[in-house]
Structure to design on (478 residues):
């Protein structure tokens, strides 16, 4: 018996096996390539994103320097001026890098460019942020000062003065800032502002205007008034019963403004039209007033008494840009201030001036800054005689200062920052007015109060700090 053997060729099986193996190999290779690319993208993204908090740290240091040293004193703050780019520079390392035990792996180089004299107080901050580049990437930059990653929006002026020790991802931002004035409004309060007297007026002028357009000899002139007498509260109600507000009124969210018989709020072309001009009342006020603190030099002052001459008392302040500090438990009697003086009255102390027989008189060019912890303070007409601008007399109430009374027929020229105090302004009559600004807990007005906000306080006075108005990423290689 013969057995039939099928002698078909075996090459087809081998070919199919090879084809299958090739397809699997290609698929596996593609998958591994995909995983590798995804890993590279993740590492790049991590390096790129890590640069952001590094840059933010540099920006925060710059804002802090501006806060404490202000523009004019940057040369005293430890920052180095570079004439080549016009920036004050500093750099720092956030932590040592683990890559190759490198120093300065997470670092920033930040600069501050101050505005030219006479220009708005809007410093420019530019900052380089450095983080280690992923070492296992074929496309990782060889040049330490370049990066192929991220947005390029333009070139600006900060020249790097700092070089990390290893290859890094570098990013750069440009931040525009502006100062945030402490006394930016005529009246600001945490709670109720009650303008319930008769013929109350708030407006503004500018004692720093050298052209004389908005002042006469640096003093308020009703014929040159401005509509900057803004009134604002974080609370829910502002009574504008018989007041003329040359400016705007603002309350906290959902707040109301009560307008009665003779009230008028608006610009100089509107007032005294009865009612509120369109766009001059809002409910978006939400400001953290902060807490007043006493300078260390005042807290530790050994000057605990006045000097006396011809039956009066003298606070002899510092001259030529210097300041003398005094710590006094009682502030009363007839006092003359010369030079630049700072007075600290601690909690439990006394501050009281009747105006007719006693008060504080600032000599020409003198300045007085008071930090008051006394619970209740009384300043009657001519209790504070300040021949200069409101900048020359600044009153800061500590948390224990809960009541301030300003009254009488004399002018009060100064700025008050007492966030815990209830401020009462009582009939200034025909011969007196409040010239300056106030930040308090509540405001109550009785009688004819004329309130003239000096806009020089916002231009030249103390600030809360600097705020960011724009943030843009720029070309790190220019």
């Amino acid at each position: 018996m013969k057995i039939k053997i099928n002698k078909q060729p075996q090459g087809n099986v081998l070919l199919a096996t090879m084809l299958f193996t090739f397809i699997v190999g290609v698929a596996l290779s593609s998958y591994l390539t995909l995983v590798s690319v995804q890993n590279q993208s993740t590492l790049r993204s991590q390096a790129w994103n890590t640069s952001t908090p590094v840059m933010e740290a540099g920006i925060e240091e710059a804002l802090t320097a501006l806060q404490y040293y202000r523009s004019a004193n940057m040369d005293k703050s430890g920052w180095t001026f570079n004439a080549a780019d016009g920036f004050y520079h500093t750099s720092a390392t956030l932590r040592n890098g683990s890559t190759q035990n490198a120093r300065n792996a997470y670092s920033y180089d930040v600069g501050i460019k101050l505005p030219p004299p006479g220009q708005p107080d809007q410093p420019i901050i530019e900052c380089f942020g450095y983080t280690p580049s992923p070492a296992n990437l074929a496309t990782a930059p060889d040049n330490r000062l370049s990066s192929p990653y991220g947005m390029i929006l333009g070139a600006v002026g900060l020249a790097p003065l700092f070089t990390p020790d290893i290859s890094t991802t570098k990013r750069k931002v440009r931040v525009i800032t502006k100062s945030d004035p402490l006394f930016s409004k005529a009246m600001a309060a945490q709670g109720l502002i009650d303008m319930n007297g008769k013929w109350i007026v708030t407006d503004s002028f500018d004692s720093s205007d050298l052209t004389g357009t908005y002042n006469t000899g640096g003093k308020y002139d009703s014929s040159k008034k401005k509509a900057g007498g803004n009134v604002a509260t974080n609370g829910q109600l502002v009574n504008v019963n018989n007041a003329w507000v040359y400016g705007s009124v603002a309350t906290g969210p959902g707040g109301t403004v009560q307008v009665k018989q003779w009230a008028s709020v608006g610009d100089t072309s509107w007032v005294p039209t009865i009612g509120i001009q369109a766009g001059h009342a809002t409910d978006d006020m939400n400001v953290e007033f902060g807490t007043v603190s006493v300078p260390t030099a005042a807290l530790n002052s050994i000057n605990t008494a006045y000097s006396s001459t011809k039956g009066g008392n003298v606070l002899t302040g510092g001259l030529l840009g210097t300041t003398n500090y005094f710590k006094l438990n009682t502030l009363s009697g007839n006092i003359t201030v010369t030079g630049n003086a700072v007075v600290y009255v601690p909690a439990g102390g006394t501050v009281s001036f009747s105006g007719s027989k006693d008060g504080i008189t600032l000599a020409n060019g003198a300045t007085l800054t008071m930090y008051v912890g006394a619970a209740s303070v009384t300043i009657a007409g001519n209790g504070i005689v300040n021949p200069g601008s409101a900048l020359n007399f600044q009153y800061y109430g500590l948390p224990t200062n809960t009541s301030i009374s300003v009254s009488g027929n004399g002018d009060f020229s100064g700025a008050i920052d007492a966030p815990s105090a209830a401020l009462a302004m009582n009939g200034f009559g025909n011969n007196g007015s409040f010239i300056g600004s106030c930040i308090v807990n509540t405001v109550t007005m009785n009688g004819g109060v004329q309130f003239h906000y000096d806009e020089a306080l916002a231009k030249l006075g103390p600030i809360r700090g600097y705020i960011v108005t724009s943030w843009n990423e720029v070309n790190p290689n220019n």
The radius of gyration is 33 Å. Helices lie at 11-69, 296-299, 456-460.
